[in-house]
Write a structure and sequence with these properties.
The structure is a single chain. The chain has about 120 residues and is mainly α. It is built from four helices and no strands. The protein has helices spanning about 5-35, 50-55, 60-85, 90-115. α1 (about 5-35) packs across α3 and α3 packs antiparallel against α4 (about 90-115). The longest helix has 29 residues, at about 5-35. The chain is elongated.
Length: about 120
Amino acid sequence: MRWKHHEPFFWSLFGAGGVISAFCAPVIVLLIGLLLPLHLLPEAAYNYESLHALAQSLWVKGAVLIIVALSLWHCAHRIFHGLHDLGVSTGPLARTLTYGLAGFSSLALLILLLTL
């Protein structure tokens, strides 16, 4: 069986990014935007050593990578199809710029997380 089109791959990343963003963004906003500034979290949340140890965990780094990278792919797919809806040519250049930027940013995030 020969793979004839690459669009299902990008649609799967779009769908996964949308689901991840829909579930994780409200929690992140709640934690960082409300609970943390109002000091409603446990005392360990304000301790540098415990937060540093948490940030060094491979589980947290993996979660950050999944959340950010899939959200980037979701945004890239939306931008690409939004350009099409606006009548902008969605030829190889637009595809390369949108998906290439998402791929490059995901790779840069992976490298950054591995070096920290």
